């Protein structure tokens, strides 16, 4: 079912992640990874112009080690971090959007 930009589908985590990886670059937000601001500039390049950017993050319960390994080893997800501090998932989303806007990778609202 789909309506106004919202899609409801009966898919597993692996299916959704695989579809996102096929559409473009897949990033995994992890606390101890290289900083997002250090990683993103390399993707502000014409060769990545038509690729989507997807970000996977956990909530108060981290992804399992199997999920993390699947994302990084099988799908090629790039681990990125937001700094030494832990943030709420909602704040991580806002931070990522702000960084993408600074680099003109998404339009400003």
Class from helix and strand fractions = alpha/beta
Q: What is the ordering of alpha helices and beta strands?
A: EEHEHEHEH
Name of the level-1 CATH class = Alpha Beta
Name the beta content range.
Answer: 15-25%
The share of residues in helices is 25-40%
Straight-line N-to-C gap: 27 Å
- Which outline best applies? globular
CA gyration radius, whole angstroms: 14 Å
Indicate the CATH topology.
Alpha/beta knot
CATH architecture: 3-Layer(aba) Sandwich
Q: How many strands, what sense, and barrel or not for the largest sheet?
A: 3 strands, parallel
Number of domains: 1
Sequence of strands across the biggest β-sheet: 4-3-5
Task: Tell me the CATH superfamily.
Answer: SPOUT methyltransferase, trefoil knot domain
Mean pLDDT: 88
Q: What is the count of helical runs? A: 4
Q: Low-confidence segments, ≥5 residues, pLDDT <50?
A: none
Number of strands: 5
Task: Give a quick summary of the entry.
This protein has 109 residues and is an alpha/beta fold. Helix content is 36%, strand content 17%. A 3-stranded parallel beta sheet has the order 4-3-5, covered by helices on one side. A two-stranded antiparallel sheet has the order 1-2.
